[in-house]
C-alpha cells in the first residue's frame, strides 16, 4: 500500500518531545521531514543520556527517518535560504514561545505570504493567546494547571509524580498530528492552509473527562485519590504482593469484581466496596500481600477479571503477547547497533517496511541536499 503521506513535505522547527514525536509519526506515514537545528551543537536532546557510543538514544528514537539541516535561524539570510523549502512545504511544525518565529521572520503571516497553502502548527504550553501565553512550563506544570494532577497526586508527605508525560504527548503530540491531518484534508477541499494553535495544557483536560463531568459541570468536590478511577474504590487500585510486585486490580464491573474476590477468597461481608471502600481494600491488601505475585498471576489470568501483575518496561518489551503482534519488531540503528524502535500508533500498512532499520541523521547531514549551506543574502 502507498504510504498516505508520500509527497508531503514537513519542515520541523521543534525540539525535545511534543513536536519531534508528532513529526516522527508523520514521517512513519511517508512524509519527508526536514529537521532544523542549531549549527555546531544541534538541539539539546542530542546530548542527553543514555547514549550508545556518544549518540543519544532518546534523540535517535524520536528523530529517526528525518533529514537534518543545521541553520542559524537568527542569521540575516536565514529566511532567504529557507524560501525554496517554504514555497513547496505542506506542513511546518514549530515549538517556540509565541512571537519567536515572528521575530525570526518565520511567523505564520510571513510564511503564508510565501505559501498560502501551508499548514502551520504551533505547539506551546498555553497557546498563542491569553495571560499565560509566554509563560515557561513543562509537563508537570501543564497537568497541574489543567486540574489533572490534583486527582491522584499521592499523600501530602510523599506526592506521587505522574507516570507519563500526559500534556507533552497527549496534549501536544496527538492533537498536533490529528489537526495537521484534518487541515490537510480541509486544504484538499479549499486550497487554503491553516494556523493550528496547539496548547498542551488544554489538551490535558480530555484525559480526565469524568472529572470535568463531576468537578466542573456537577460542581462536586473531588478528593485526591478518592475518585472512582483514582483509588476511591477497592476494585480499582494497586496492591502489593508478598514479593513487592504490584497487582493492578481493575475489576470495575461487578462480574469482574466478584470473580476477583473469588480468587482471593474475599469474605462476603467485605465485598461491598461502595459502602465500605477502606475496610474492603484493607482486606484485599492483606490477602494479596500474603502471597507473591507468582502465586497470583496464573490465578488472575485464569479468572479473566481485569487484574494483572504490573510489568517493568523491560518485561513489557518481551511479553509474548506484544511479541506475537510484532510491536517491537521494527529496528533502529544507533551507532551501528540495532535496537528496538519506539512503538507508534500508526497502522503497519501505512508505515515504512519493518525490515528497514531507521536512523537519526547526523547534525547538518542534509544541508547540501536542501541548498542550505550558508550564503549571502539575495
Automatic annotation (TrEMBL):
Pfam families: CoA_transf_3
Class of this enzyme: transferase
One Gene Ontology MF term: transferase activity
UniProt EC number: 2.8.3.19
The UniProt record lists the keyword Transmembrane: no
Keywords, ordered alphabetically: Plasmid, Transferase
InterPro entries the UniProt entry points to: CoA-transferase_III (IPR050509), CoA-Trfase_fam_III (IPR003673), CoA-Trfase_III_dom3_sf (IPR044855), CoA-Trfase_III_dom_1_sf (IPR023606)
Top-level taxonomic group: Bacteria
PANTHER family, per the entry: ALPHA-METHYLACYL-COA RACEMASE, SUCCINYL-COA--D-CITRAMALATE COA-TRANSFERASE
Protein name: Acetyl-CoA:oxalate CoA-transferase
Protein's organism: Sulfitobacter pontiacus
